[in-house]
Amino acid sequence: MVRKISWFLFGFFAVAIGLYPLIYFFVDRTFGLLIHKSDTLLANTAYNIGFYGHIVLGGLALMVGWIQFHTSWRQRHLKRHRQIGMIYMISVLISGLCSLYIAHFSTGGMITALGFISLGVVWLLTTGGAFYFVRQGNIRMHEKLMIYSYAGCFGAVTLRIWLPILIGVTGDFITAYQIVAWLAWVPNLIVAYFITRRI
User: Fold this and answer.
1) How wide is the angle at C-alpha 62 spanned by C-alphas 91 and 17, nearest 5°?
2) Helix axes 2-19, 155-170, angle to 10 degrees
3) Which of 23, 85, 158, 173 sits in a 20 to 30 Å window from 15, CA-based?
4) In the chain, domain spans
5) Could you report the per-residue pLDDT of 126-157, keeping only the tens digit for each?
6) Could you count the other beta carbons within 10 Å of the beta carbon of residue 175?
């Protein structure tokens, strides 16, 4: 029962936060994280391409990636697993590269920027490594690196869980955002480490 509930919550958060970027297309742009950006930055074409490229394709990666962890489904639908895997990897490539650019404009300065840049690098390297190893036929390493990759991807979920808690504790958005730039994904990788030890 606990395992089923955990799996349901895992899928629910992945899909819900994966769809979350759609809100930016239907509400005023002074919403969410953009509320802290200057008018000059919001008018910058390169930043907008980077921002929307990151949130839309990152959301897609989050939304399609979770089903890949259902072992019996994956074994029954190997062709579909590969197709979804390619969608995930292409989405990560574009979203990850976009994240490296927009991270330089992060609210909270260098501490926040370094946190998100580090996440972007880890996300790209683990996903790229997973692709390399599956092409080499090393399924074990592919699975391990994909767990790390999705742990980074799931940072989109854990960020939205931690941020309101940290704002409540610190009473300051900037401080909370500087912390969550690291807290959103580093513990995820630690969890991924213990999961991969069993593979």
Assistant:
1) 125
2) 90
3) 173
4) 2-196
5) 999 999 999 999 999 999 999 999 999 999 99
6) 15
